[in-house]
Amino acid sequence: MKTQYQIAIIGGGTAGIMTASQLLNKDRSLDIVIIDPADTHYYQPAWTLVGAGTYDFDKTARPMKDLIPHGVDWIKDAVTEFLPYENKIKTHKERTITYNYLIVAPGLVNDLSLIEGLEEAIDKGTVCSNYIDPKYTWQCIKNFKGGNAVFTQPTTPIKCGGAPQKIMYLAAHYFSKNKIKNANVVFATPGTVIFGIKQIADTLMKVIQRYNVDFRPQYSPVKIDSKNKIIHFKRTSVQKSIRPSLNSNDEENHEDVSMVEMPFDFLHLAPPQTAPQFIKESILVNEDGWLDVDIHSLQHKKFTNIFGLGDVAALPTAKTGAAIRKQVPVVVDNIIKMIRGQEANNRTYQGYSSCPLVTGYGKMVLAEFNYKNEFTPDPKLKMMMISDSYREHWRLWILKKYILPYLYWNKMMKGKDV
Ligand SMILES: Cc1cc2nc3c(=O)[nH]c(=O)nc-3n(C[C@H](O)[C@H](O)[C@H](O)COP(=O)(O)OP(=O)(O)OC[C@H]3O[C@@H](n4cnc5c(N)ncnc54)[C@H](O)[C@@H]3O)c2cc1C
User: Fold this and answer.
1) Residues 155 and 261 occupy one common structural domain
2) How high is the pLDDT of residue 366?
3) Which of 184, 192, 329, 374 is the most buried (most CB within 10 A)?
4) Residue 190 lies in domain
5) What is the pLDDT of residue 330?
6) DSSP letter at 133?
7) What separation in Å is there between the alpha carbon of 39 and the centre of ligand 1?
8) Is 404 within the bounds of a domain?
9) Are 279 and 289 spatial neighbours (Cβ–Cβ below 8 Å)?
10) Is residue 64 part of a domain?
11) Annotated catalytic sites, by residue?
């Protein structure tokens, strides 16, 4: 078996496959391997719709072998260790692979142990997560007969930061359409606002009012008592106070922390998420345990022949497939430049990410933004006759449910421009 490659890619997810396809489209002679132990590749953005009973889960899965581009080798194995000074990686099946360039894209992992009681509670009774089993979420939504329907998310970074609230809007819409009496929908989040971009937040606050959602900012889930159906939150609020004894203009922030117990009859949560263990244990990470790359060039800060993108990368923007679509061309350009003996000077990734905020069946708002949290709608939306994507639109729902999955499988995975 071949063990030496020009370009090795760790992970055949959204980032790994898209990067391999675009590299080959630029230069068919490149010698590329993808290392990934998984048989199946998932289109995760549709899991929100699966959880709301409006998308077939099987359509989100495709065999990995059908997606690996022709001309790229696939080693079905998991990487376990980096030897970056020797340009080598080691795998679970005790292979050693040597590379000239390395692309690190193994995504992230759910770490249920970070919330006490979550491992025991999940996917049983009325506790579910679109991040783990969206089909079970749909079972729980259908079985809900009233009471407290609690939606929450952890304090760690998560994939698609909007996903925990999207399923909340869909569930609230479903409960009201199905006349579930006494449904008390709660959205409890560690954040201070519903969304970081004002125009989008204004729309979402109206949606929250429409569904009569009890919005609880600064609530961090810490423990689930599944036997008694109670979730425990740490509630933080920052109070500003004037210190009169000193300079009267001085302000001091006091953090008030209290514990809140909330009974639930339905609970959906995004689990805590971290980089995979072999990444966290490597010397390639920053102090928070995420892959330490330059936020504009995606080149590793210490090892110049290593690049990283996708969910694993330490980038101060939302972890989404949409972000990856804009990261891939930068990585591809930089690697091709280096192969040609030039400098990897493409630093054009500005933190673009997007969050298709489904706000009900047939309704969506499209948040697109950059590192500065500026609202940056795609000019191509005008072709869909949408000039105000910060508002709810039926046409954006069509984009989410039909157009984006089509583009993902037929264009993005094949490295074509969208
Ligand atoms: C519920 C939900 C809703 C979402 N909604 C949206 C949305 O609306 N829009 C959007 O753009 N994004 C959305 N996302 C996020 C999006 O799916 C991810 O950001 C994207 O898939 C990340 O791609 P990735 O390549 O980094 O990781 P992944 O696609 O997760 O792929 C990682 C790959 O690495 C492999 N791997 C792991 N460990 C190893 C190892 N040790 N060695 C080798 N290979 C390894 C895995 O098997 C996997 O194939 C959503 C995600 C979820 C869960």
Assistant:
1) yes
2) 98
3) 329
4) 111-272
5) 98
6) -
7) 14
8) no
9) yes
10) yes
11) 160, 355
Mutate to test the pocket of ligand 1, among 43, 93, 137, 160 (most ligand atoms within 8 A of CB): 160
Q: Based on the domain organization, do 292 and 169 belong to the same domain?
A: no
- Per DSSP, helices labelled H in 222-374 are 277-280, 321-339
Pairing of strands 230-242, 251-263: antiparallel
Point out the domain boundary residue: 272, 297, 327: 272
Residue 292 tokens read as 């330490």
348-388 pLDDT, tens digit per residue, is 999 999 999 999 999 999 999 999 999 999 999 999 999 99
Residue 246 has pLDDT above 80, yes or no: no
Closest CA to 233 of 146, 312, 155: 155
CB-CB contact of 358 with 170 (8 Å): yes
What is the whole-number distance in angstroms between the Cα of residue 107 and the centre of ligand 1? 5
Phi then psi for 286, rounded to 5 degrees?
-85, -175
Residues in contact with ligand 1 (CB, 6 Å cut-off): 10-16, 35-38, 44-45, 47-48, 78-79, 105-107, 130-131, 159-160, 163, 276, 278, 310-311, 319-322, 324, 356
Kindly state whether residues 248 and 297 are assigned to the same domain: no
CA gap 217, 220 in Å, rounded = 9
Quote the number of domains for the chain: 2
Q: How far does the centroid of ligand 1 lie from the alpha carbon of residue 14, in Å? A: 6
Q: What is the CA radius of gyration of the chain?
A: 22
Q: Which amino acid, 361?
A: Y
- Within 8 A by CB and 6+ apart from 113, the residues are 119
pTM of the model: 0.96
Residues 299, 175 share a domain: no
- Give the CATH number for residue 296: 3.50.50.60
233 and 129 assigned to the same domain? yes
Helix axes 134-143, 163-177, angle to 10 degrees: 30
Q: How confident is the model over 274-332, as pLDDT tens digits?
A: 999 999 999 999 999 999 999 999 999 999 999 999 999 999 999 999 999 999 999 99
Instruction: Answer whether 235's CB lies under 8 Å from 190's CB.
Output: no
Whether residue 73 is contained in a domain is answered as: yes
**Domain shared by 24 and 128, yes or no:** no
Whether residues 172 and 265 share a domain: the answer is: yes
User: Is the predicted pLDDT of residue 28 greater than 80, yes or no?
Assistant: yes
For residue 257, the tally of other CB atoms under 10 A from its CB is: 10
217 with 343, same domain: the answer is: no
Q: Name the domain boundary from 231, 247, 272.
A: 272
Nearest atom within ligand 1 for CA of residue 11: 34
Q: Which of 82, 307, 320, 400 is the best mutation target for the ligand 1 pocket, counting ligand atoms within 8 Å of the beta carbon and taking the most?
A: 320
